[in-house]
Design brief:
Structural class: alpha+beta
Number of strands: 3
Radius of gyration: 20 Å
Shape: elongated
Length: about 110
């Protein structure tokens, strides 16, 4: 049985600016190691590892061990709870804007 990640978990994981920056670097890379993420980040390797752990728990990244290295890659389906939540509001605003457009047409044809 596949356990789905809640919107709260995804939002909490992406709320931290450093963690979000780590996620963005993982997204831009096909696969990337902790050492590569640490280079030029101004963040310690331990902190990067903790951020990756949170991202992994949120379902946003996956890891692939190879020897002594662990490669991380983005899990696009991890963003599904956030995308679903945004889409719900997109429908809400689309309906509201359609109603406003109709009202404006009635006021000033």
């Amino acid at each position: 049985m596949i356990e789905t990640t809640s919107i709260d978990t995804v939002m909490r994981a992406l709320a931290d600016p450093t963690r979000r920056a780590v996620f963005e670097r993982v997204v831009r890379a096909n696969e990337i190691t902790v050492a590569e993420l640490t280079q030029g980040s101004g963040v310690t390797q331990g902190a990067i590892s903790q951020h990756l752990k949170s991202l992994k728990q949120a379902g946003l990244v996956a890891e692939r061990p190879e020897g002594r290295k662990v490669y991380y890659r983005a899990q696009p389906e991890g963003l599904a709870p956030l995308a679903d939540w945004i889409n719900d509001y997109a429908v809400f605003w689309r309906e509201r804007l359609d109603a406003l457009r109709d009202l404006l047409k009635d006021i000033d044809p």
